[in-house]
């Protein structure tokens, strides 16, 4: 029966002078070139995640929380590399070392494309025609076996390859990829999830003088063994050609990123641990748009001094700069927003110095809301970070410019 269906579909395709086998062969060559050419581009990747509880008695999954993160992404030698937006270099470490909370994945920008179309071991079969974008697409099923898979799952601290399969929709006229789906095969027994699947929709994006095929959106669904589910939506924007002055740097902590702003100080401000610092945000932070990875800036409200000293280690008006580290909206069991941020440098009279501080958490509020602020585990990664909680029943809120928070310095060396 299946052979008859395939022959009928093939006959229709030949009537349009497009043989499914020839379309696939030509599309694979074209998409292989696309995957290899992505080394020349950088995009902003925005990740919106939704966390659902187990299926309720009446059916459906309750939405428990959401969060958002933003990174820059490129491809180097078939591997996706990430950095914080605006950083001057990429880092070779895993993406989960940048985004420390919640599930993260790579592959949507270019690795999935390379893993399927630039992989001789990937097997294909023609499924038939599908309606897509007002026209017709050819659907092909594919499978990538375990021994040829570049798809990896992290279990604990180790990565394990996994076989996967799915479908691709190809325009028989332009040979463009319109949609790709990915489903994991058998997973390692220690994996915390039982199933994962992604759907990517593609479009052409004008970057400089080039017309580049990139995902318009990627949707990833992960079913945990606990019965919970996570749904990630990834969108790409602000794509550009890779600049000659950009660099890929291996094994350099992203926190050491250099700022394309005032000159860096030749020395350091010798900063003992535990000095109080009051910071006031210079711009509002809107939870409807803000994401982990976005730059954040605050002014020092009062001079920072050693006890019983009149010397200003950091004068009032100095500007501290860093990044938002988490933007979370918790809905159940209690509704609140969690905003975490960190600072890694301070500008004093036009000169930039290292600056590390830890925010003073509201322990009573955290206890009332049931938030774990401890390091590690399921809590917020808090060393050198300030975490702020805002109980509210609203779906969106903004921390106003001028919002003040109390921090304490962590020791930095001096010369």
What does this protein structure show overall?
By secondary structure, the protein is mainly beta. It folds into two domains: 248 residues, outer membrane lipoprotein receptor (LolB), chain A (Clam); 149 residues, Lipocalin, CATH 2.40.128. It is 11% helix and 44% strand. α2 packs across α3. 31% of the residues are buried.
Determine the strand fraction and express it as a percent band. Answer: 35-45%
Radius of gyration: 25 Å
Q: Report the uncertain regions.
A: 1-15, 244-262, 375-381
Oligomer: single chain
The CATH class designation of the largest domain is Mainly Beta
Mean pLDDT: 84
CATH topology description of the largest domain: outer membrane lipoprotein receptor (LolB), chain A
Q: Please, how many helices?
A: 4
Order of helices and strands: HHEEEEHEEEEEEEEEEEEEEEEEHEEE
Number of domains: 2
Write down the overall geometry.
elongated
Helix content: 10-25%
Query: What does the largest sheet look like?
Result: 18 strands, antiparallel
Architecture per CATH nomenclature, i.e. the level-2 architecture of the largest domain: Clam
What class do helices, strands and sheet pairing give?
mainly beta
End-to-end separation in angstroms reads 80 Å
Task: List how many beta strands DSSP finds.
Answer: 24
Keywords:
elongated, Lipocalin, 18-stranded antiparallel beta sheet, outer membrane lipoprotein receptor (LolB), chain A, about 425 residues, 24 strands, mainly beta
Give the SSE layout.
Layout (H helix, E strand, L loop, with lengths): L1 H14 L4 H18 L3 E12 L10 E14 L2 E5 L5 E3 L19 H7 L5 E10 L2 E10 L7 E4 L2 E4 L2 E7 L6 E8 L8 E15 L2 E15 L4 E13 L5 E3 L26 E6 L3 E2 L8 E6 L18 E12 L5 E13 L2 E4 L2 E3 L3 H7 L16 E6 L6 E2 L4 E6 L6
Parallel strand pairs: 4-14
Antiparallel strand pairs: 1-2, 1-13, 2-3, 2-18, 5-6, 6-9, 7-8, 9-10, 10-11, 11-12, 12-13, 15-17, 15-24, 16-23, 17-18, 18-19, 19-20, 19-22, 21-24
Helix pairs in contact: 2-3
């Amino acid at each position: 029966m299946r052979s008859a269906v395939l022959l009928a579909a093939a006959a229709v395709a030949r009537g349009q002078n497009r043989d499914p086998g020839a379309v696939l062969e030509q599309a694979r060559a074209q998409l292989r070139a696309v995957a290899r050419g992505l080394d020349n581009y950088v995009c902003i990747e925005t990740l919106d995640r939704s966390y659902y509880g187990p299926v309720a008695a009446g059916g459906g999954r309750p939405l428990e929380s959401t969060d958002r993160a933003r990174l820059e992404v490129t491809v180097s030698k078939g591997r996706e590399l990430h950095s914080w937006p605006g950083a001057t270099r990429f880092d070779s470490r895993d993406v989960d070392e940048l985004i420390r909370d919640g599930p993260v994945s790579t592959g949507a920008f270019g690795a999935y494309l390379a893993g399927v179309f630039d992989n001789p071991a990937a097997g294909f079969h023609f499924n038939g025609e599908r309606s897509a974008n007002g026209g017709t697409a050819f659907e092909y099923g594919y499978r990538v076996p375990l021994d040829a898979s570049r798809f990896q799952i992290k279990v604990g601290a180790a990565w394990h390859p996994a076989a996967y399969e799915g479908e691709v929709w190809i325009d028989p006229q332009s040979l463009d990829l319109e949609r790709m789906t990915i489903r994991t095969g058998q997973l390692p027994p220690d994996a915390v999830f039982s199933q994962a699947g992604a759907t990517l929709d593609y479009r052409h994006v004008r970057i400089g003088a080039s017309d580049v095929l990139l995902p318009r959106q990627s949707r990833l669904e992960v079913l945990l063994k606990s019965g919970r589910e996570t749904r990630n939506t990834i969108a790409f924007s602000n794509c550009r050609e890779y600049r000659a002055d950009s660099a890929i740097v291996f094994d350099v902590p992203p926190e050491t990123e250099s700022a394309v702003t005032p000159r860096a100080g030749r020395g350091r401000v010798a900063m003992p641990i535990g000095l109080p610092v009051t910071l006031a945000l210079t711009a509002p932070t809107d939870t409807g748009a803000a994401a982990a990875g976005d730059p954040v800036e605050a002014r020092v409200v009062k001079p920072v001094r050693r006890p019983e000293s009149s010397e200003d280690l950091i004068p009032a008006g100095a500007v501290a700069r860093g990044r938002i580290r988490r933007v979370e909206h918790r809905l159940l069991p209690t509704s609140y927003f969690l905003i975490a941020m960190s600072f890694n440098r301070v500008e004093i009279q036009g000169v930039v110095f290292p600056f590390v501080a830890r925010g003073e958490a509201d322990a009573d509020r955290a206890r009332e809301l049931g938030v774990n602020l401890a390091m590690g585990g399921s809590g917020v990664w808090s060393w050198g970070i300030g975490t702020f909680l805002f109980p509210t029943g609203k779906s969106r809120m903004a921390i106003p410019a001028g919002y003040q928070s109390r921090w304490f310095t962590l020791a930095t060396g001096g010369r």
